[in-house]
């Protein structure tokens, strides 16, 4: 058993692990319990971590029939192939699983390859994967998987030969689909193998001269020597030719024998498409329905209507109950809500007098600092009141309950006396340089001859600084 782990990493798939497992003595491919135990140990020892797997069956387990199909839609061609499979395959092989390779439904006449395998091999593969804690996503032919990848990335309509010490498989590619497959003997002895291979070439070449043979060699054959013996062009393939990165294999060509396993991994990543898949066969018989489809649809429609009616009635009752509960809760909370709103209004009104925002005191402090200490200028009275709030056009907006009241400017009138008019202008200039004072103006200034001094009245706007004082 050959295994390869292929993952999607970066721009191209990467082969992260490969390995060859020799079956234990007395264990066959259908011995699921013993083989699963050996497979689990093998995967663990070789560093495999993937859980999804594509399984490839050898060509000697397959029964193949070429079949010409007419130009028709996919459903018609599939039904024709299903009938042909049931009538043309051997009756002595019981319980076969059928599928086919190639694209149908494009309104073109073509030839496809019908394939069948005993169900026991499919069941054994599924049981083996499940016992080894793997998830099978497809079961196909190893030779077909390798041939289709090779025909897609290396050559047009090639013959693809995969050689292993125990046997060989050869496929004929028409485009990206396999049109024929053969199981061949082991490559040793070479004369007998070359003779059988020459006969297979004459059969699979299908009258097309000059077709290239792609060799995937896992037994140490020489491609040039083989081409001279067969009289055809033989080209050796290597894993990088499949469009994969191969850090897990050696650079000396030993990885070639894992080409079929890598091709299966690529099929699992890219999807089987129009290739054969015995786990999800396109020729699987349709499930029989005892109840007519129209009756089934009518019954489902009636059940759906009844279910919707019951759900609507139950939902209406639930909404009514919820509405009554919420109404009662609202009525009970309305009295307490009025009390809470009155409390919030009082707190909001008193917020302007909070100790953390002393606008009046801060204004007096700035004024005290600004008045010169000449023992000639003094203030007789101060009038402070709130500046009118700006009127906002449109719908009035109410501040949220409990929000801090914003500090508004103060209008300040200062009345005082000094020795002469120059002192008055000096005081006015000093007040104009205070950052928190604006619109500083002299509203009144006159002399008092009897008392030998000047009286003044200065008006300004005090704007509290932003942030905490």
Task: Tell me what you see in this structure.
This protein is an alpha+beta fold and 469 residues long. It has 2 domains: 269 residues, no CATH class; 89 residues, Alpha-Beta Plaits (2-Layer Sandwich). It contains 10 helices and 16 strands. The protein has a 5-stranded mixed β-sheet with strand order 10-9-8-11-12, with helices on both faces. A 4-stranded antiparallel β-sheet has the order 13-14-16-15, covered by helices on one side. Helix 1 crosses helix 3. The radius of gyration is 48 Å and the shape is elongated. About 1% of the residues have low confidence.
**Count of distinct strands:** 16
Spatially, the strands of the biggest sheet line up as: 10-9-8-11-12
Computed structural class: alpha+beta
User: What's the end-to-end separation, in Å?
Assistant: 84 Å
Catalogue the unreliable spans: 401-405
- Could you tell me the strand content as a percent range? 25-35%
Element layout with pairings:
Layout: E1 2-9, E2 12-20, H1 32-46, E3 52-57, E4 63-69, H2 74-88, E5 96-101, E6 110-118, H3 119-131, E7 135-141, H4 142-153, E8 159-164, E9 167-174, E10 177-184, H5 190-204, E11 213-217, H6 223-230, E12 234-236, H7 259-270, H8 293-350, H9 359-370, E13 378-386, E14 410-418, H10 421-432, E15 437-448, E16 453-462
Helix pairs in contact: 1-3, 4-7
């Amino acid at each position: 058993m050959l295994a390869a782990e292929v993952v999607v990493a970066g721009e191209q798939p990467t082969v992260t692990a490969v390995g060859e497992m020799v079956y234990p003595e007395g264990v066959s491919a259908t011995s699921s319990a013993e083989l699963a135990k050996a497979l689990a140990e093998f995967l663990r020892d070789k560093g495999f971590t993937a859980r999804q797997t594509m399984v490839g069956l050898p060509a000697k387990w397959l029964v193949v029939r070429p079949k010409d199909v007419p130009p028709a839609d996919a459903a018609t061609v599939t039904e024709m192939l299903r009938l042909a499979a049931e009538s043309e395959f051997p009756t002595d092989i019981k319980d076969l699983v059928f599928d086919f390779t190639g694209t149908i439904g494009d309104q073109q006449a073509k030839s496809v390859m019908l394939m069948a395998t005993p169900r026991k091999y499919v069941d054994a593969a599924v049981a083996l994967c499940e016992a080894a804690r793997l998830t099978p996503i497809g079961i196909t032919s190893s030779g077909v998987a390798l041939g289709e990848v090779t025909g897609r990335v290396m050559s047009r309509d090639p013959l693809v030969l995969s050689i292993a010490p125990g046997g060989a498989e050869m496929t004929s590619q028409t485009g990206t689909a396999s049109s024929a497959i053969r199981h061949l003997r082991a490559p040793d002895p070479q004369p007998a193998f070359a003779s059988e291979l020459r006969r297979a070439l004459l059969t699979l070449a299908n009258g097309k001269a000059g077709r290239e043979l792609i060799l995937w060699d896992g037994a140490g054959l020489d491609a040039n020597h083989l081409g001279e013996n067969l009289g055809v062009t033989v080209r050796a393939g290597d894993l990088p030719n499949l469009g994969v990165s191969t850090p897990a294999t050696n650079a000396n060509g030993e990885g070639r024998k894992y080409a079929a396993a890598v091709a299966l991994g690529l099929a699992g990543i890219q999807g089987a498409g129009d290739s054969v898949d015995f786990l999800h066969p396109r020729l699987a018989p349709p499930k029989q329905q005892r109840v007519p489809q129209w009756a089934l649809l009518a019954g489902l429609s009636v059940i759906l209507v009844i279910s919707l009616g019951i759900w609507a009635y139950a939902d209406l009752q639930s909404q009514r109950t919820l509405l009554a509960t919420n109404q009662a809760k609202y009525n009970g909370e309305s009295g307490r809500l009025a009390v809470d709103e009155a409390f919030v209004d009082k707190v909001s009104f008193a917020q302007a007098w909070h100790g953390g925002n002393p606008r009046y005191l801060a204004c007096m402090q700035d004024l005290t600092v600004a008045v010169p200490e000449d023992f000639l200028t003094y203030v007789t009275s101060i009038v402070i009141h709130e500046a009118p709030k700006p009127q906002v056009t449109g719908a009035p907006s109410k501040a949220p309950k409990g929000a801090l009241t914003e500090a508004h400017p103060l209008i300040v009138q200062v009345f005082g006396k000094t020795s002469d008019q120059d002192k008055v202008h000096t005081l006015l200039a000093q007040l104009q340089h205070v950052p928190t004072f604006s619109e500083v103006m002299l509203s009144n200034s006159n002399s008092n001859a009897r008392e030998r001094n000047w009286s003044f009245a200065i008006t300004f706007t005090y704007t509290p600084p932003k942030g905490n004082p």
